Amino acid sequence: MESQAESKEVNVRVAVRIRPLLPKEKLNGEEVCVRVVPNSNQLVMGKDRAFTFDNVLSSKTTQEEVFQLCVEPLVKSCFEGYNATVFAYGQTGSGKTYTIGGGNISSLTEEEYGVIPRAIKQMFDIINAEQNISFCVKVSYVEIYKEELQDLLDVDKSSKEIHVREDDKGNTVIIGAREVECSTLDEMMSLLEAGSAVRHTGSTQMNEHSSRSHSVFTVVISQTWTEGDVLATKRKQSQSESIDGLDEEITHNTCAKFHFVDLAGSERAHKTGNVGDRFKESVHINSGLLSLGNVISALGDPKKKSTHIPYRESKITRILKDSLGGNAKTVMICCISPSTASFDESLNALKYANRARNIKNLPIINRDIQSIRFEEMQSEIKALREELARQRTSILSAGGTEIDLEKAHKDASQIKKLEEKVIRLQTECGHYRVIAEEAYKQLIQIQGKDFLSRSQDIRLKDWLDLMEEIKNKVPSTLSRDQWESQTIKDLQSELRKAREDLKNDEEIFADKTKEVKELKARNVELVRHL
Ligand SMILES: Nc1ncnc2c1ncn2[C@@H]1O[C@H](COP(=O)(O)OP(=O)(O)OP(=O)(O)O)[C@@H](O)[C@H]1O
């Protein structure tokens, strides 16, 4: 995928959500130490510590309002091809899991659903209402537990099989995690529920169901649409006025991912009462959050602007690299408890959140590199064709012969046929390659498994060897990228040839026009003589 830069940087948006006092806190006689300034995005901690954020959500804000204010715009952006991230940050027990919505979903009413169930519902609503675009939606769900990646959609998978890497464009990718294609909301909801159920949680003095890991639920949305399909629909709806500017042959591809991140909460050992394993978890949680704090500081502190950003210090900061200071649109929801007993922790969280507001991202639309080049070529071809048509008309008005026109027409249709053939073959080849590579990835995991008979295993091995051979052979010494660019080069040379033909035609037409003019002049002369 190649990316197109949008012209302007945008800041990470920061919302603060204050949860209500919990019954237990009320019983303990704890009091509220934070208030929201009415009709503003301000809150005041204690007597006079005022903070302003992009959104300040009071304890009365509903789950639907949180979604509408903070996440709905990101879902829309994702369909435009932008990567998006929403992450919840805050002290243990401050309401992160409740807000993000990856907890025990089956125990919730729909009104209590957090951000993820609402966002994926909206995604499928958009998909189901769209007639002209074909979608492929995939989901993965991982957690970082004691600094190791675990697959929440495949608990048997060893953490050693999952890695955070950068692809050749510098984008962060999680390799090895199970990715499941979903065609309905129900399918995705089941995966969210199943994955959330196996997440590491435990009881602490601060939170009965405390998340002991950072979780990342990722939805990848790929879209393909042709302007031809849009035209067909518009024609069906007789919307001829909005047809201008569309070209039947142009295909668009975008692919964007949406990360929903529920961080483990920062905690103080003496408050959580953690000992043994729970304490060890605490150490990992706090060190991951410390790295995140360092990244936020380095990016968000204007004085530290040009210094090194310590993304590599922990897994969570590596995963969030695109989301903080990268190419995604990001919203941070900082959750705080309103209780006086959590004053210091809430104040700290607000200071971090305040710094995060200064982080600038450069969102880009993720588009397939080939489709960008195809589009460029297709529009060039279109321009050439128009030029040819113009030439033809001018010859006609200058008295060109039928034969000239016939030749020009023949050439143009030959060029068109060639272009169509090249594009068709290219698309067909691309599809087969994607399917074969997908099968190869799946089959490599099955190889050697007990449930295969010996002969099946041998046949599978032969297939994999053959695939390997083809991968190495096609084309023998070229990498896939080189091969793709070779194909693009072939297309370009076809184009060059078409352009040369056009130039030749232009010259012939110019000669013919001159000849016709001379003949006319001679005729006039002759008539005058007679
Ligand atoms: N806005 C809210 N309205 C009502 N109850 C809430 C709200 N936010 C959180 N709670 C309740 O507060 C408790 C703690 O919330 P939650 O588990 O989401 O915290 P957390 O920040 O994810 O904690 P940890 O970091 O320990 O996992 C839960 O019982 C949850 O239902």
Automatic annotation (TrEMBL):
Residue intervals of the Kinesin motor domain: 11-359
An example molecular function term from Gene Ontology annotations: ATP binding
Subcellular location: Cell projection, Cilium; Cytoplasm, Cytoskeleton
Protein transport as UniProt keyword: no
InterPro entries, per the entry: Kinesin-like_fam, Kinesin_motor_CS, Kinesin_motor_dom, Kinesin_motor_dom_sf, P-loop_NTPase
Keywords: ATP-binding, Cell projection, Cilium, Coiled coil, Cytoplasm, Cytoskeleton, Microtubule, Motor protein, Nucleotide-binding
Top-rank taxon, per record: Eukaryota
Binding site residues for ATP: 90-97
Family: Belongs to the TRAFAC class myosin-kinesin ATPase superfamily. Kinesin family.
Protein name as it appears in the record: Kinesin-like protein
Biological source species: Sinanodonta woodiana (Chinese pond mussel)
